[in-house]
Amino acid sequence: MGRSAAWWRRLLGWPEPAEEPADETLEYPWRGRWDRVPKRSAGPDFGRADYSEARRRAREVAQATLGPDLWATLQRQGYLDLPSRLFDGVTYRLRVGRRIEVLCPPAVRAPWRHPFLCLNPTYPLPEEEFFAHLYLYVRDREDTVVREAAPQPWDQALGRTF
């Protein structure tokens, strides 16, 4: 915790946050600051072999998360479509490393003015691993996606994936 945050806590009489037990074998990337890391990068200390290994593990995570049938569909089509549970007639098209595309038939009014939703991870992740996260969020926590994603007028690659 930063010094100013600790000062405010003492001033307001708030309790100190519980510290997570430090496990030296685990990384805690959400604790770091990532705003200085270039887009589509994991940082300057990440080498070619590190990227290769991270992408290999990411593919394993995505395959295990989606299962063989959805993984095969993603490989064949290049995307997965998920129907919305909150908006009748709305479908989310998920593509690896890209923004979420919002699809609606002509008779259905889109919930957003723009056809793409931008949602980036907090810290750099391989594209296929973040795709698996995104799939689960859209499938199981659509309310969070609707609240957090930024509607965008165009598609582009995600900034915190590599």
Written account of the structure:
The chain has 162 residues and is of the alpha+beta class. Helices cover 38% and strands 11% of the residues. The chain is built from four helices and five strands; from the N terminus they run H-H-E-E-E-E-H-H-E. The chain has helices at 3-12, 48-77, 127-140, 142-148, and strands spanning 80-83, 91-94, 100-103, 116-118, 150-152. It has a five-stranded antiparallel β-sheet. Helix 2 (48-77) packs across helix 3 and helix 3 crosses helix 4. It starts with a helix and ends in a 10-residue tail after the last strand.
What is the topology?
Layout: H1 3-12, H2 48-77, E1 80-83, E2 91-94, E3 100-103, E4 116-118, H3 127-140, H4 142-148, E5 150-152
Antiparallel strand pairs: 1-2, 2-3, 3-4, 4-5
Helix pairs in contact: 2-3, 3-4
Q: Which class do the helix and strand fractions yield?
A: alpha+beta
| Average pLDDT for all residues | 91
Helix content: 25-40%
Order of the strands making up the biggest sheet:
1-2-3-4-5
Number of helices: 4
Order of helices and strands: HHEEEEHHE
Based on CA atoms alone, the radius of gyration comes out at 19 Å
**What spatial form do the alpha-carbon principal axes imply?**
globular
Unreliable stretches covering 5 or more consecutive residues = none
Number of strands: 5
User: What proportion strand?
Assistant: 5-15%
The description of the largest β-sheet is:
5 strands, antiparallel
Give the end-to-end Cα distance, rounded to a whole number of Å.
29 Å
